[in-house]
Amino acid sequence: MARVEIAAIEDAARRIAGHVRRTPTVPSSALSELCGVPVHLKLEHWQETGAFKLRGATNAVLSLDGPERERGVVAASTGNHGRALAHAAKKAGARCVVCLSNLVPANKREAITALGAELRVVGRSQDDAQVEVDRLARDEGMVPLPPFDHPAIIAGQGTIGLEIVEDVPEVETVLVPLSGGGLIAGIAAAVKAKRPRARVIGVSMQRGAAMQASLAAGRPVEVEELPSLADSLGGGIGPDNRFTFAMTRDLVDEVVLLSEAEIAAGIRHAYFAEREIVEGAAAVGIAALLAGKVDASGPTVALLSGRNIAMDLHARVVAGANGLEDAA
Ligand SMILES: *Cc1c(COP(=O)(O)O)cnc(C)c1O
């Protein structure tokens, strides 16, 4: 089976050191008291570009050989991965093209060009944008770097797992936001290699949990994509998934699903009790603890994965809104 091993994650850690932030892990007295076990927060939302995706993107870009770097990298993401890839490519002096559809609003387009990436605007959907990615790879030899299902991306995200074990050697439970599974596959590979008895738990939103549905079906399946406070957790895992489905199935102990109101409560707890601004996707570990949906039986680490939330939405959630409709 195709799987990313600990050696590749340790290589990634050496490769990206000095290029990404080494984020801290801090105790949460509020959550420790609530759960009756020591709870720590891994503050990865402090990562440059505002999300952990810079680790995978940096590892992938720095792994290119000279001619590949010359031809450049291409992706179809307008979210945290697109931002991270643009940033990593610029720092490495590599060309970066981000393909997107006509539906992507102007402010998101400008954010990508501001990071030094070129834009290709094609068609009316993410699928149309992906067709352009495939064409640029075929015709111009550009290197496609997808957001999760790629060994160098998984290895880069896995470096978070090494840091968690370094900072909390006694860790027994790790809570990880889960969408396409690049993050949890890398972290689980690292944590299980170092602490075989520690549990790694994925947390997704009930609205469109593609990995959970795929695990239940025993193969990658599509789910309807619905608007969620945890927008960075939306999207499928890909019908031809090569790495993250199998790694999640084999390495992850449990997947927990949350309602929008539970995610909102997680954002509020992060803000009021921890004084951290996080996006919905990053609040799910805290939210799962607050909702009593995980059995925190020993020292626990919840990963805060990003902070790229529209601040007007954040303000409305902090003021009590329990979902997107509620905040509208
Ligand atoms: C991408 C992302 C995730 C999920 O990562 P996957 O590798 O797709 O599972 C979680 N949180 C944030 C902030 C993200 O940007």
UniProtKB/TrEMBL annotation:
**CDD domains tied to this protein:** Thr-dehyd
Q: Which organism is it from?
A: Jiella endophytica
Which PANTHER family did the record assign? L-THREONINE DEHYDRATASE CATABOLIC TDCB (PTHR48078:SF6), THREONINE DEHYDRATASE, MITOCHONDRIAL-RELATED (PTHR48078)
Family that this chain belongs to = Belongs to the serine/threonine dehydratase family.
Lyase is among the record's keywords: yes
Q: Which UniProt keywords apply?
A: Lyase, Pyridoxal phosphate
The identity of this protein, by name, is Hydroxyectoine utilization dehydratase EutB
Question: InterPro entries under this entry?
Answer: Ectoine_EutB, Ser/Thr_Dehydratase, Ser/Thr_deHydtase_PyrdxlP-BS, TrpB-like_PALP, TrpB-like_PALP_sf
Domain named Tryptophan synthase beta chain-like PALP: residues: 17-306
Any single GO BP term = L-serine catabolic process
Q: Which superkingdom?
A: Bacteria
Entry-linked Gene3D superfamilies: 3.40.50.1100
Q: Which gene encodes it?
A: eutB
Record-level Gene Ontology MF annotations: L-serine ammonia-lyase activity; pyridoxal phosphate binding; threonine deaminase activity
Q: Which PROSITE patterns match?
A: DEHYDRATASE_SER_THR
**Cofactor field:** pyridoxal 5'-phosphate
